Inverse folding.
C-alpha cells in the first residue's frame, strides 16, 4: 500500500507542482489522469525517489520512503515520461546491465528474464542493436522492459503508451494487467481511455491536487443524470460557456457538441447523455481550473 | 538579416557563464604574463617587439582554449538543446546560418582576445616605476593583436567550427583544441622557437614549412626580427611583408578553404540516427522467430554484498567502456601515441644536426615524456573525462532509470571513480607498450621494472587529480561549472600561477611533487622520498574528498547541495563517518609530516622570504664590505657520507692566511644556513657574535693577524637532505651516487657578495641603492693596475672521505691510503704536485668536491699521469673510448700548452638528472651517463657517420684542466672566453687530429646555427668576444673564431701563443684576461693577420656574402668555363647595436661543385669539388672566371661556415648554362 500525505513541492521558478497532495493507493492498476502541467510527473518523480518534496510524507508498505528511499527503490519499476539511453550499447547489454543494478545476480534467471522481457516487448529480434538507434516506439518499449526487471512491487509508468501503435499499446496493457495482480501499478496518463480500460481505481489530478479519486464506476455514478449534450454552432460556444458549466466541447462533423453539467435540463435542445470517464475528467479539471 | 543574426549571436554568447569566465581568464593571463616579465634587459617590456612577443605567447597559450570554450555554444548548441529540427526548418538560408555562427565566433573570440591585450596593459601599469607612453603602448599592442592574433583566431575558429559542425560533439571540439595546443608546442620546440625555453635544434626544412603555416605567425615574426638590435626592437613595429605576409595569407587561405568546405558539405538535414548494424543481426532475426516464446516472470532480486558487488562491477565496466569505447578516446590515444613516437625517437637520437648514434635505452625514452608531457597530457584528459563520466546519466537523460534502481550510491559513485582512474592507467599502459615497442625496434634493452614504476610515479598523482575533479563535479551545479572549476584548479596545481598570489608553498599545489626524473644510475631516488611523502598527503586528502564526494553524491534531479549536505551523515552511515574521521586524521598527520620535511629539514623559504633575507643581509652586513679577510691556504677535512640516510658529516680544519699588507682584527665567517654548523672556532680568536638567521660568525682576534701570518680554523658541518624542494644538482646524497660541491656549502670569509640582490628593478623596489655599474675589462685593469692576483683562491687539500662499503669515494688529490672500518670504506686523498712540473703543483683551485658512487674503475697511464674512468658496471661500452680521448687530449695539451701538474686525472659518470653534460673540477671531471656512457658509438666514426660526442665531450672536459684549472683567468669581462672558447679550440684540434677536417666542419656548421639561435634569443646588445660571457658567444662564436684564426695563422702559431699565455699567467703569476690572450696571439701572428684577430675578438661583425651572378659555358674538350661575380659586405655593430658598413671578410672559401655544398659537410667527401680556393673579394662586385673539367652544378661561397653570415640563401647558386640563360 502506498500512502501519500500532504505532499508539497514548489519549484525555484515559483511553480507549485504539488499542493498539499494526499493519496492512498492499493494493489492493482491505479490510473492517474491529469492535463499537462497538473504535477503528475512531479508526483511520479517524487514517488520514484528522484526528487524530494518540500514537505509531506510517503509511506510504502509502512516504510517512509523519503527518509529511506531504498525501501522504495528495492521494489520499484519506473518508466519516466522522458528518458534517453547511452549510445553504442545494445539493447540486450543495457537491459542486462540494468538487471544487475536491480540485483539479479543469478545469471540463468537474469538471462531468462531479460530475454523474456525482450520478447514480450517485441524487441528480441533487435536485441543486438544499439538502443540509441531505436525508433521512438521501440525505445519506449525498451523503457517498459527495464521497468519490469526483477520483481517490482510497485510499477510507476509515466505516459507509457505515448508513441506506441495500437497493437503495441494492447500488448503493453496486457502485460501491465498481468503484473498488477500482485503489484501496485501507477499509470499516469492524459489518455482517458487507457484508464477506463484498465484501472479499477483512479484519481484525477489538477494544479498539484487530487481533485477526484475512486473507482471509475463509482465516480461516474456521481455524474449520472447530470450530463447534458447539445449540438450548437461554433460561434455560440462562448455564450454557452458563460451561461453554463460546460464540461467539454468537441467538434463532430464541423459542428460543436458541448457537454454541460446540470441537475436539470438546462434549456431546450439539450439531451441527457450517460456520463463517461471523459466527462468525469473534464468536469473535474475544468471545475478546478475555472 | 545578417546584422540581426550577429546581434543574436552576441546576445547569446554574452549571456553564457563561460563568456565571463573566459573574459576574466584572458585579462588575468595577460596581466600575470606581463607582470612576471623581468625589466632588467636592453629590451623594453613596453616596446613593440616585446609586446608582439607577449601577444604571440598569449595567442598560443590562450586561443586554442578560448575558441574551444566558445565553439560549442556557437556550433553544437542546437544539437545539445535538441532544437536542430526547429532551426533547420526555418526559412534561414544555409549561408546566413553558417556565416552568422562562424563570424559570431570569430568576433567574440577576437573581442575576448583583445581583453588579453588589455590584461597586458594592466600588467604594465602594475609594474612600479615604469615610464612609458600609454598611447604608443596601446598601438604597439593592437598591431600584433591584429596581424598575429586575428588570422590565428580565424583559422582556429574554422577548424573547430568544422569539427563541431560534423561531430555535433563538444568533446570532439575539446580534443581538437588540445591536439592543436600540443602539436603547436611541439612544433615550437622542434623549430627552435624563441618562445620556448629549451628548443631543440631544428631542421631548416621544418622551420621553413612551419614559418609558412604557423597559425599565429610567430615563426615568421621572429625570423623578421632575428637581426634587429634591441634599439630597433624597442622602436620599430613588425612589418607585414615578406614571409610574415605570405604566412598570414596562407593561414587565412586555409581558414577560407575549410569554411568553404563546410559550406559546400553542409545541408539542413538531420543525419539518420540509426547506424549501420552489423550483418550478423539478420541471422538472429531468423532464429528468433523459431525460439520458444518466453513468458515474463518476475525474478526476486538479491540484496547484500554480492549483489552490490555485481552491480558495482557491472557499472564500473559499463562506465569505463562507455568512456574508452568512443571515437574521442581513440582519437586522443592515437594522437598521444603519434606524439609519443616522435618524442621517443628524438630522445633516442638527440643532438640535432650533429646526429649522434641513436641509443634506445629506457632512460632515454622516459626522458621524453615521463616527467612533463605524460602527466600534463593525462591531467587534461582526466579533466575532460571526469566531466563525461560524472554527468553521463544526466547528459544522456538516463539518470531516472539508474537513480530509481535499488543499486546503492556507493556502487554508482565508486564505479565512476574507479572507471575514471582506469583512464590514466590505460594511457600509462599504452604509453609503456608504445615506448617498449620502439625500444625493441631500435634494438634497445627494455627495463620492465622501470616501466612498471610509472604506474606508481605517474599513476598516483592522477588518482589525486581524478578524485579532485570528480569531487568538484559532484558539488558543482552543472557540468560547465564543474569543468571550468576543475580546469582552474588543475591549472593552478600544475603551473606557477600560485606563486604570483603568494601560494607558492608546495603544499598549496594539489597533487604536485618535485620533478621526478629517471637516472639509470640512481633511479628516481633524488626526489622519490618526497614523492612518496607528498603522495601520502595528497592521497589521504583525496580520500577525504572521495568520501565527501560520495556523501554528496547527486541522486535524482534537483537536489540542492545544501540538502545533500544535510543528508551526508545518513548517506555515510557509521562506516562512512568512521572512514571520514580516519582520512581526516591521516591527512592531518601526513600534512604535518611533510610540513616538517619541507620547512624544517629542507629549510623551505618563500621567494619573498628569500628576497627579504637577502635585503636584510645586505643592510645588516654591508658595512663589512671592505673588511679585510684572510684567505684559505690549506683545507683538511674528514668527510663521512651516509648515502642511505642522505646526509653527511664533516670535520674540517682550515689554515687561514693574511694576504694583505695590513693587520686583520676581525674575521667574519659566512656559512650556508641549510648546513648545520657547529664548533666553529678560530685559533686565537673569540666569537664576538653569532647571527643564526644569516649564518654569520664574527670573530674578534685576540692578537691582530700580521701580514702573511696564519691561523687555524676548525668546524664541523652536517646536513640532512631530502627531495622535497627538488634536486640540488651540486649537493645530492643518495644511495649509489653522492656529490657535495664545497663552494656553496662551505664557509666563506668576509661580506658575501653572492647574497646580494642583483636585479636593479628589485633593488629599487625594496629601496636598496643601485649597485655600482660592473666595470668594463679595461676599467677593471686600470683599477687593479693589471694585477688580479687577489682573486686567486688556491689551496692545499687533504681529506679522509668515507662512504658505505659498496661505494667508492672520490675527491681531488692523490690517493694516499685506503682502508675499511666498521663496514665503511675510507679513502685518504691529498693534493701533491709533481715537482718537476710546477713548484705549486700541490695546490689546486678551491673548487673542491666530495663524491661517492657504486663505481667500476678503468685506468691507463699517459705521460706519467694516471687517467681513470669511474663508471657503472652496466655502462662499460664507451669506457675504452673515453680513456682514449683522455689520453689523446692529455698528450696534445702536455705537448702544446704545458705539462699537467698532478699525477691523477679522474673522470666520473654521473646521473643525468644533474643536468650537466660535462663538468670539470680540478683533477676530477663529471660526465653524464647520458651522452657520455650510454651513447652508442658508430662502428666507423667517419665524417658521414654519427657524430662522436663521447670523444668531443671528453676532450673538452680534459681541456679544462688547462683552460680553467690551469690558466685561471681573472674574474672579469671575457673571463669565460679563457675557459670555454679555449676548451672549444682544444676540442676542435683533437677532433681534427682524430677524424680530419671534414669532421670539424660539421661541428662548425652546428656552432654557426647555435650562434644565430642564441643571438635571436638574446635580450642584450652583443658584446665583442673578448668581453662576452653568453654561451652562444663563448662556445659557438668562440669555436668559429678560433678555428678560422687557426686556419689563417696556423695551429702551431696559436698553440705557441696559448703556451705562452699559460706560462705567463698561471698561478701564482697574475691571472690572464682576454686582452692577454689577444696580445699573445698578436705576438706570434704575422702582421697581415692582426686585423683578423681584432675582427673576431674585438668587433661584433656580421658578414653578408653573396653570389651576385653565376653561370657556366661549355668549352671544347669537355671543359667548362665558370663565371661568377661575388660580393662581400659586412657590418660592424657598436655597443648600442648601431651598424656601420665595413669591408667584408677578405679571404673567403669559394667552390665550384658537382653536388650541393652541404654534402661537403654531411658526407665529408670532397669528391664533389671541382675547384675550391680562397678568394679575395670586397664590397664591389668581384667577378672571377675558372675552367673546370666536369660539368659543374653549384657554386658556393663559404661552404664551411667560417663566416658569420645570417643570410646564407645567396651563398649557394645552382649553375645554369650561360647560353640557355
Amino acid at each position: 500500500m502506498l500512502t501519500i500525505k500532504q505532499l508539497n513541492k514548489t519549484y525555484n521558478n515559483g511553480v507549485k507542482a504539488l499542493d498539499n497532495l494526499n493519496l492512498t493507493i492499493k494493489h492493482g492498476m491505479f490510473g492517474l489522469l491529469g492535463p499537462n502541467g497538473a504535477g503528475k510527473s512531479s508526483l511520479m518523480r517524487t514517488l520514484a525517489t528522484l526528487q524530494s518534496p518540500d514537505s509531506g510524507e510517503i509511506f510504502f508498505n509502512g516504510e517512509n520512503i523519503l527518509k529511506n528511499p531504498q525501501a522504495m527503490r528495492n521494489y520499484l519499476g519506473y518508466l519516466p515520461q522522458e528518458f534517453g539511453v547511452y549510445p553504442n550499447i545494445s539493447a540486450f547489454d543495457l537491459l542486462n546491465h540494468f538487471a544487475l543494478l536491480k540485483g539479479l545476480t543469478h545469471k540463468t534467471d537474469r538471462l531468462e528474464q531479460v530475454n523474456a522481457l525482450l520478447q514480450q516487448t517485441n524487441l528480441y529480434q533487435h536485441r543486438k542493436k544499439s538502443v540509441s538507434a531505436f525508433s521512438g516506439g521501440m525505445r519506449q518499449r525498451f523503457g517498459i522492459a527495464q521497468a519490469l526487471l526483477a520483481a517490482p512491487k510497485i510499477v510507476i509508468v509515466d505516459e507509457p503508451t505515448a508513441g506506441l501503435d495500437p497493437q503495441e499499446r494492447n500488448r503493453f496493457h496486457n502485460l501491465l494487467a498481468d503484473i498488477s495482480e500482485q503489484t501496485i501499478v501507477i499509470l499516469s496518463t492524459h489518455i482517458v481511455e487507457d484508464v477506463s480500460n484498465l484501472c479499477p481505481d483512479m484519481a484525477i489530478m489538477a494544479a498539484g491536487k487530487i481533485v477526484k479519486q475512486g473507482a471509475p464506476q463509482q465516480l461516474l455514478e456521481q455524474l449520472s443524470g447530470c450530463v447534458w449534450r447539445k449540438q450548437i454552432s461554433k460561434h455560440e460556444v462562448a455564450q454557452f460557456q458563460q451561461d453554463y458549466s460546460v464540461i467539454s466541447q468537441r467538434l463532430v462533423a464541423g459542428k460543436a457538441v458541448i457537454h454541460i453539467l446540470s441537475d436539470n435540463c438546462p434549456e431546450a435542445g439539450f439531451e441527457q447523455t450517460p456520463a463517461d470517464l471523459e466527462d468525469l475528467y473534464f468536469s473535474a479539471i475544468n471545475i478546478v481550473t475555472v | 538579416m545578417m546584422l540581426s543574426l550577429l546581434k543574436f549571436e552576441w546576445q547569446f554568447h554574452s549571456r553564457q557563464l563561460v563568456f565571463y569566465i573566459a573574459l576574466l581568464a584572458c585579462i588575468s593571463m595577460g596581466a600575470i604574463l606581463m607582470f612576471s616579465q623581468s625589466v632588467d634587459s636592453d629590451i623594453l617590456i613596453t616596446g613593440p617587439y616585446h609586446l608582439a612577443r607577449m601577444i604571440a605567447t598569449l595567442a598560443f597559450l590562450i586561443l586554442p582554449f578560448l575558441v574551444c570554450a566558445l565553439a560549442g555554444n556557437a556550433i553544437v548548441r542546437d544539437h545539445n538543446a535538441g532544437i536542430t529540427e526547429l532551426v533547420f526548418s526555418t526559412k534561414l538560408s544555409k549561408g546566413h546560418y553558417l556565416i552568422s555562427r562562424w563570424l559570431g565566433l570569430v568576433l567574440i573570440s577576437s573581442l575576448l582576445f583583445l581583453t588579453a591585450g588589455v590584461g597586458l596593459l594592466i600588467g604594465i601599469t602594475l609594474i612600479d616605476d615604469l615610464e612609458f607612453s600609454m598611447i604608443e603602448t596601446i598601438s604597439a599592442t593592437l598591431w600584433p593583436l591584429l596581424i598575429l592574433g586575428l588570422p590565428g583566431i580565424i583559422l582556429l575558429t574554422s577548424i573547430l567550427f568544422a569539427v563541431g559542425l560534423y561531430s555535433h560533439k563538444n568533446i570532439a571540439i575539446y580534443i581538437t583544441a588540445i591536439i592543436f595546443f600540443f602539436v603547436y608546442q611541439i612544433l615550437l620546440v622542434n623549430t627552435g622557437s624563441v618562445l620556448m625555453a629549451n628548443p631543440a635544434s631544428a631542421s631548416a626544412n621544418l622551420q621553413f614549412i612551419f614559418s609558412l603555416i604557423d597559425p599565429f605567425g610567430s615563426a615568421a615574426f621572429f625570423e623578421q626580427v632575428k637581426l634587429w638590435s634591441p634599439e630597433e626592437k624597442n622602436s620599430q613595429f613588425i612589418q607585414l611583408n615578406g614571409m610574415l605576409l605570405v604566412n598570414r595569407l596562407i593561414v587565412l587561405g586555409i581558414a577560407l578553404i575549410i569554411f568553404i568546405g563546410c559550406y559546400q558539405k553542409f545541408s539542413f538535414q538531420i543525419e539518420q540516427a540509426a547506424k549501420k548494424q552489423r550483418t550478423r543481426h539478420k541471422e538472429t532475426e531468423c532464429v528468433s522467430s523459431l525460439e520458444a516464446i518466453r513468458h515474463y516472470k518476475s525474478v526476486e532480486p538479491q540484496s547484500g554484498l554480492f549483489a552490490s558487488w555485481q552491480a558495482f562491477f557491472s557499472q564500473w565496466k559499463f562506465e569505463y567502456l562507455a568512456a574508452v569505447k568512443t571515437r574521442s578516446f581513440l582519437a586522443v590515444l592515437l594522437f598521444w601515441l603519434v606524439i609519443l613516437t616522435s618524442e621517443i625517437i628524438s630522445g633516442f637520437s638527440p643532438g640535432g644536426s650533429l646526429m649522434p648514434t641513436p641509443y634506445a635505452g629506457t632512460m632515454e625514452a622516459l626522458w621524453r615524456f615521463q616527467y612533463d608531457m605524460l602527466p600534463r597530457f593525462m591531467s587534461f584528459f582526466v579533466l575532460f573525462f571526469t566531466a563525461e563520466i560524472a554527468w553521463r546519466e544526466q547528459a544522456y537523460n538516463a539518470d531516472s532509470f539508474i537513480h530509481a534502481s535499488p543499486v546503492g550510491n556507493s556502487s554508482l559513485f565508486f564505479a565512476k571513480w574507479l572507471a575514471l582512474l582506469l583512464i590514466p592507467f590505460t594511457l600509462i599502459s599504452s604509453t609503456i607498450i608504445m615506448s617498449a615497442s620502439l625500444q625493441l625496434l631500435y634494438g634497445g634493452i627494455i627495463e620492465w621494472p622501470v616501466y612498471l614504476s610509472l604506474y606508481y610515479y605517474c599513476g598516483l598523482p592522477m588518482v589525486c587529480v581524478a578524485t579532485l575533479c570528480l569531487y568538484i563535479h559532484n558539488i558543482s551545479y552543472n557540468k560547465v561549472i564543474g569543468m571550468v572549476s576543475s580546469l582552474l584548479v588543475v591549472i593552478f596545481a600544475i603551473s606557477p600561477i600560485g606563486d604570483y598570489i603568494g601560494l607558492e608553498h608546495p603544499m598549496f599545489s594539489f597533487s604536485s611533487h618535485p620533478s621526478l626524473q629517471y637516472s639509470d644510475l640512481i633511479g628516481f631516488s633524488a626526489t622519490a622520498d618526497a614523492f612518496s611523502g607528498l603522495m601520502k598527503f595528497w592521497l589521504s586528502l583525496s580520500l577525504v574528498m572521495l568520501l565527501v564526494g560520495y556523501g554528496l553524491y547527486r541522486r535524482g534531479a534537483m537536489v540542492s547541495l545544501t540538502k545533500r549536505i544535510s543528508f551526508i551523515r545518513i548517506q555515510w552511515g557509521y562506516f562512512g563517518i568512521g572512514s571520514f574521521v580516519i582520512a581526516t586524521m591521516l591527512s592531518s598527520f601526513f600534512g604535518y609530516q611533510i610540513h616538517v620535511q619541507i620547512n624544517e629539514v629542507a629549510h623551505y623559504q618563500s621567494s619573498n622570504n628569500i628576497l627579504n633575507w637577502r635585503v636584510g643581509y645586505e643592510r645588516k652586513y654591508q658595512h663589512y664590505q671592505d673588511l679585510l679577510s684572510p684567505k684559505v691556504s690549506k683545507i683538511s677535512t674528514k668527510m663521512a657520507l651516509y648515502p642511505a640516510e642522505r646526509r653527511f658529516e664533516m670535520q674540517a680544519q682550515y689554515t687561514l692566511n693574511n694576504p694583505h699588507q695590513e693587520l686583520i682584527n676581525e674575521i667574519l665567517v659566512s656559512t650556508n644556513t641549510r648546513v648545520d654548523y657547529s664548533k666553529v672556532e678560530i685559533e686565537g680568536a673569540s666569537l664576538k657574535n653569532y647571527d643564526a638567521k644569516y649564518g654569520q660568525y664574527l670573530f674578534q682576534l685576540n692578537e691582530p693577524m700580521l701580514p702573511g701570518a696564519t691561523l687555524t680554523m676548525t668546524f664541523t658541518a652536517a646536513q640532512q637532505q631530502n627531495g622535497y624542494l627538488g634536486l640540488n644538482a651540486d649537493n645530492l646524497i643518495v644511495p649509489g651516487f653522492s656529490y657535495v660541491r664545497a663552494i656553496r656549502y662551505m664557509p666563506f670569509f668576509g661580506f658575501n657578495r653572492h647574497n646580494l640582490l642583483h636585479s636593479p628593478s628589485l633593488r629599487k623596489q625594496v629601496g636598496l641603492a643601485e649597485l655600482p655599474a660592473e666595470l668594463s675589462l679595461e676599467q677593471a685593469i686600470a683599477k687593479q693596475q693589471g694585477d688580479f692576483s687577489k682573486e686567486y683562491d688556491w689551496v692545499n687539500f687533504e681529506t679522509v672521505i668515507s662512504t658505505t662499503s659498496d661505494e667508492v669515494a672520490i675527491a681531488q688529490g692523490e690517493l694516499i691510503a685506503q682502508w675499511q672500518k666498521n663496514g665503511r670504506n675510507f679513502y685518504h686523498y691529498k693534493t701533491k704536485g709533481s715537482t718537476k712540473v710546477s713548484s705549486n703543483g700541490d695546490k689546486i683551485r678551491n673548487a673542491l668536491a666530495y663524491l661517492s658512487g657504486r663505481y667500476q674503475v678503468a685506468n691507463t697511464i699517459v705521460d706519467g699521469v694516471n687517467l681513470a674512468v669511474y663508471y657503472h658496471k652496466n655502462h662499460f661500452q664507451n669506457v675504452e673510448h673515453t680513456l682514449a680521448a683522455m689520453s689523446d687530449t692529455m698528450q696534445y695539451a702536455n705537448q702544446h700548452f704545458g705539462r699537467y701538474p698532478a699525477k691523477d686525472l679522474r673522470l666520473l659518470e654521473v646521473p643525468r638528472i644533474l643536468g650537466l653534460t660535462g663538468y670539470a673540477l680540478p683533477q676530477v671531471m663529471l660526465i653524464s651517463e647520458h651522452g657520455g656512457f650510454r651513447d652508442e658509438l658508430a662502428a666507423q666514426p667517419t665524417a658521414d657517420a654519427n657524430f662522436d660526442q663521447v670523444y668531443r665531450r671528453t676532450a673538452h672536459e680534459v681541456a679544462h684542466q688547462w683552460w680553467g684549472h690551469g690558466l685561471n683567468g681573472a674574474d672579469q669581462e671575457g673571463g669565460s672566453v679563457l675557459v670555454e672558447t679555449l676548451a672549444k679550440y682544444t676540442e676542435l684540434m683533437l677532433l681534427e687530429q682524430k677524424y680530419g677536417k671534414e669532421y670539424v666542419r660539421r661541428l662548425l656548421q652546428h656552432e654557426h646555427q647555435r650562434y644565430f639561435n642564441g643571438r635571436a634569443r638574446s635580450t642584450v646588445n652583443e658584446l665583442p668576444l673578448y668581453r662576452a660571457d653568453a654561451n652562444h658567444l663563448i662556445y659557438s662564436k668562440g669555436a668559429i673564431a678560433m678555428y678560422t684564426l687557426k686556419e689563417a695563422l696556423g695551429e702551431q702559431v696559436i698553440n705557441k701563443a696559448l703556451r705562452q699565455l699559460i706560462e705567463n699567467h698561471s698561478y701564482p703569476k697574475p691571472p690572464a684576461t682576454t686582452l692577454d690572450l689577444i696580445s699573445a696571439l698578436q705576438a706570434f701572428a704575422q702582421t697581415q693577420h692582426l686585423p683578423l684577430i681584432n675582427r673576431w675578438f674585438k668587433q661584433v661583425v656580421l658578414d653578408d656574402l653573396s653570389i651576385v651572378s653565376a653561370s657556366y659555358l661549355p668549352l671544347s674538350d669537355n671543359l667548362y668555363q665558370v663565371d661568377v661575380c661575388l660580393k662581400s659586405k659586412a657590418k660592424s655593430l657598436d655597443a648600442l647595436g648601431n651598424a656601420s658598413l665595413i669591408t667584408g671578410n677578405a679571404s673567403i672559401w669559394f667552390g665550384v661543385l658537382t653536388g650541393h655544398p652541404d654534402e661537403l659537410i654531411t658526407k665529408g667527401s670532397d669528391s664533389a669539388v671541382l675547384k675550391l680556393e680562397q678568394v679575395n673579394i670586397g664590397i664591389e662586385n668581384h667577378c672571377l672566371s675558372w675552367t673546370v673539367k666536369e660539368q659543374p652544378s653549384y657554386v658556393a661561397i663559404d661552404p664551411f661556415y667560417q663566416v658569420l653570415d645570417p643570410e646564407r640563401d645567396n651563398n649557394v647558386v645552382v649553375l645554369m648554362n650561360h647560353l640557355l640563360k
Residues 225-273 of chain A form one domain. The radius of gyration of chain A is 21 Å. Chain A has a mean pLDDT of 86. The CA atoms of residues 91 and 127 of chain A lie 5 Å apart.
